[in-house]
Amino acid sequence: MSSLVIDSFIELPQAVLDVLDEGQPIFHRVIVDPSTPATAEDAQPTPTTTTTGSSSTLIITNVEKIHSSDHTSVYSAKLDLPNNDELADVVLKISNAGGPRNDALWREYQRYEDLAKFQGTVIPRCYGLFQAILAEEDEEEEPDVVSCLVLAYGGEASAVELNRNSREFSLSIIKALENLHDAGFTHGGLHPNNILNKQGTAVLIDLEFVRGDHKCDRAASVGTNGLESKTGDFGCSEIYSVARKMDLWKKSGPS
Ligand SMILES: [Zn+2]
């Protein structure tokens, strides 16, 4: 259930292509047919429909590198959406590690699809995953790809330690987690770096480790009844542990 299918390509600025050092790869949108869940065995690399004309291309401008690690670079940028006068603030995650269906961005993109109903609230809107196939030397092997995940700008960085946010914002983080948990998902890697502050509301990112097999048995909402509790009693280790790191137990409520 891709939330936004308006095009087939993305056009990255020369500065990004230069960093990739892969010539002029063509970035096709990855299309996922929701009726046939892709697996490593049956997925074929990106048979996208090809359309022509400027309205079929997402154009990225104003890129600035935020940070990079071994295989992934993160940029802020502007996205020129067809039929939209204003440029959208976006974040690009670009990786060149792995094949079309086994790299980290592919996995993260799947989580954005799984969590489609939370896009724009608990998690950023996802504009899609785009991949450029670099070489097909051997039909038996998966070709190398460069992947580019395009996400809406999620917000400002949150405090560097979980216990340094305001209580109000901490509760917003818990609220976001509770929303995910009630839908059966855990974040799986919650850390200050993947919590953004959008005008006081928490937005969760870095969804690579999201799992969808959670049955939340938490005993209480931390916001309304944040009593000291042992993990076993509380019934949900992820929320308990995050609330503990935020010192929510100690500060909450009159005893
Ligand atoms: Zn839970």
UniProtKB/TrEMBL annotation:
PROSITE patterns: PROTEIN_KINASE_DOM
Annotated SUPFAM superfamilies: Protein kinase-like (PK-like) (SSF56112)
An annotated Gene Ontology molecular function: ATP binding
Residues covered by the Protein kinase domain: 60-255
Coiled coil region boundaries: none
InterPro entries listed in its UniProt record: Kinase-like_dom_sf, Prot_kinase_dom
Name listed for the protein in its UniProt record: Protein kinase domain-containing protein
Organism from which the protein derives: Macrolepiota fuliginosa MF-IS2
